[in-house]
Amino acid sequence: MLKRSLSHLAWILAVICSTAVMAAPPVGAGDSPLAPSETRAWLMRIHDAASHQNFQGTFVVSAGGAVSSSRIAHFCVGASQFERIESLDGQMRRVFRHDDVVHTLWPQSRVALVEQRNMFATFPALLHKGDDRIASFYDVNSQGTQRMAGRDADVLLLRPKDSLRYGYRLWADRGTGLLLRVEVLGGRGEVLESSAFSDLSIGVKAQTDSVLLPMKKLDGYRIVNPALTPTRLDAEGWTLRQGVPGFEQVSCVRRPLTGMTDGDDDAAAQVLQAIYSDGLTHVSVFIEPYDPARHLRGLQAASGATQTLMRRLGNWWVTVIGDVPAATLQQFANALEYRK
Amino acid sequence: MNVDVDAPLIERVKSGDTRAFEMLVVKYQRRIERLIGRMVRDADLVPDIAQESFIRAYRAIPQFRGDSAFYTWLYRIAVNTAKKALMELKRDPLVFETALASRDEDDETSRVENELSDGETPESIMASKQIAGAVNAAIDTLSEDLRQAIVLREIEGLSYEEIAEAMSCPIGTVRSRIFRAREAIAERLRPMLDARAGDRW
Amino acid sequence: MLNGSGDGTRALQGLSALVDGELDPAATRQACAQWQGNATARASWHAYHLIGDVMRSDDLASDAAHDAGFLQALRIRLAAEPVVLAPQRVEAPTGEEAASERRAALRGRWSWLGQAAVAAGFMAVASALVLTRGNAPLQGASDSLAESAARGNPVLAAARPMPAAASTSIANATGEAQTIVVDGKLLRDARLERYFAAHAQFDGSSALGVPSGFLRAATTQAPER
Question: What is the reported pTM?
C-alpha cells in the first residue's frame, strides 16, 4: 500500500517537474550561477556558431505588438562568411552579406544600399582584453535545458546588476551553440522583445552563389553608398563629461543618414554617430546641428526593447537610441558637452 | 485587452456560417499570397498553396481559441503549408537560388521575368500601380475629418472608441466618417475594379 | 455608389463597421447574409479591405479579377469540406465594465493631448509625433501578436511595424522633451527611421550576434526611387 502511494507521489512529482521545465524557467529556481570564465566560454561559443555554422531557417522577431519574419541563410566557407536575409512581411527587402560588404535591396523601388559592415571593437576583441565586463555587469545563470525549434537548447539568463541595462534570456543549441532564441527582459522580468527561429536547419550545404550573384547584379538599381568617416568625439568638439557605467565607446563616425528619397536634402545631412557598447548591447548617440525646420519636437519613445530620446542641446540636436532603459539614454544625453 | 477585429466573423464561422469564412478569405487573401510568394519563387504555385492554407485554416477553426489573433494563426498555417509544399516538390525552401540556376543569362525574356518578383506580370503591376495611385489620390481629396478617421483606423489601428476619444466625437460619428471615407475612395476605385466584380464573388 | 435607399446604405455601413470588428453578433449575422445576397455588398467588402491594405502597403494593391477568381476556386474546394461547427463564445471583453475600464485607461493616456496635437498631422509627411495607446508588453507572444496581426504591417511612408510600448507612463514634459509612450506605427517621421537604420546597422556586432533590431526594421524604409 505504502509502496503504491510512494510511486504515485513520485509520478506526481515527475509531472510537476516536467511541467516546470516546459514553462518559462523562473528566476532563481534551480539556477546555477556561472563564473566569469564560464560566461566567457558560453558567449564565445554562441558567437562562434553564428560565424562558423551553415544554417538556414525562418527568424521571427516579436516586439510587444508586432511580428516580423525573415528567411535567413548563413554559410561559412574557409575564412569567408555569406549571409542572406529576406523579409516575409511588409515591403520586400533582401539583404546579402559577403564578409564585411552588405547589400540591402528593395526590388520594388529598385534601390540598393551598399555598406561596409562596421566591425568595430566587437565581442571577441572585448573578451580577449581579458576584461570580463559582461560578467561585471550581468549575473549569469544557467537555467537547464529546453526544447526550442526542434532542438535541445541550453538556457542562459543574464540579469543586469544595475538598472542601466536590460536582461537577456538565451537559448543556445546544445550541439553547436547557435542562438535559437533571445528574449530581452525589462526591469520586472517582462519580455520586451523576443527573436527566435521558428524553424531551423543546421549544417546545410553552402550555396555561396545565392549570395554572390545577387550582389553583382545591380543593373537598374539606384545605388546608395553612404560613406562612414571615422572621427573622434573630441576632434568634433564634444565630450562625454561622465561615462555611463559598463559602456565603452567603440566607434565614432561622420555619416549621412541614409534617406533614400530622391531629392530629399536631409539625406545628405551629415550627423556624428558615436556608439557605445557594454558587450551585449549598444547605444548610438547622434549629434547634428539644430535646424528648427526639421527638429520640431523632442521625444522619448519606447517600442519593444528599443528606447529613443531626441532633444535639443543648445545649437545642436541630439538623438540617443538603444536597447536599454530610458534612464540610460538620459544619462548619455545629460553627459554630452560641447566644448569648442 | 485588445479584441481581435475578426472576433465577430470567427464566431459566425464557428456557428457553421461558411459565408463568414469567405469574407475572411477576401480580407486576407492578398497578404497570404504575398507571404507565400516570398517563400515560393514559382508564381504558378502561389494561389494553390494559398488556397490550401485557407482550407487548412477552415478545418482547424474549431481548435482556434482566440489566444492569438486570427491573422497570426492563419499566417503560421500559411508558412507551414508553403514549407510542406516545397518539401513535397523536393525544392529548397529558399528557392531563390533555384531560380538563379535555371536562368539563362543571355535570354532577354527570362531576365525580365526574373526581375519581377512574386510572379507579377507587367499587366498586373500596371493594374496594381493604378489602384495604389487611385487610393492615395482619393485619400488626399478627403476632408480632414474623414481622412483623420480612416488613417487612425487603418494605419494607427485604433478602435472606434479610441478614435472617438482622439477626435472628441461620438462613436457613431467615427463609424460614419470611416464609412464615408471608404465609400469616397471606393468610388474612385470602382471603375478599375470592374463594375461587375460583385457578380463574380 | 450609394444606392438611393437608406437600407442599402445602412447595410454597407454595417459592413464597414464589420471590417473594423465593431459590429454586434446579431448585426454580424445580418451582414453575412447581406454579403451573400447582394453583389454591391460583396464588391464593397472587397473594396474596403483593398483600401486598407493599400494604405498600409502599396504592394498589396490587387488585380480584382485575380481576387475574385481566387475566391471562386476556393469555394469549390470548401464545398467539399464538412461544415465546421464549434459554437463557443470567442472571448471578448464586452459589457459595461470592460468598456468603462478601457475608457478610463484611454482618458489617462489621452488627457494631455490637445486637439491640436491630434490634428497636427496623421499623414505621412507630418513630423509631429502623437501619442497613441500603449499596450501590455509582450507576454509569451500572445496578446501582443493580436494587435499586429489584426492590423497587418503598416508601411505607409516608411513606417515601422511597430510594437506597442512596454510602459505606459507619461512623465511630464520638462519643457523640451515630452515623454511620450509611442506605438511605433505613429512614428510617421521618415527621418526617425533613418536614425533607427543607422543604429541597427551595428546590430550584429554584439556578443549575441542577433541582429534583431536590424531584422525588425525589415518592413521599414520603403525607399522611394
Answer: 0.62
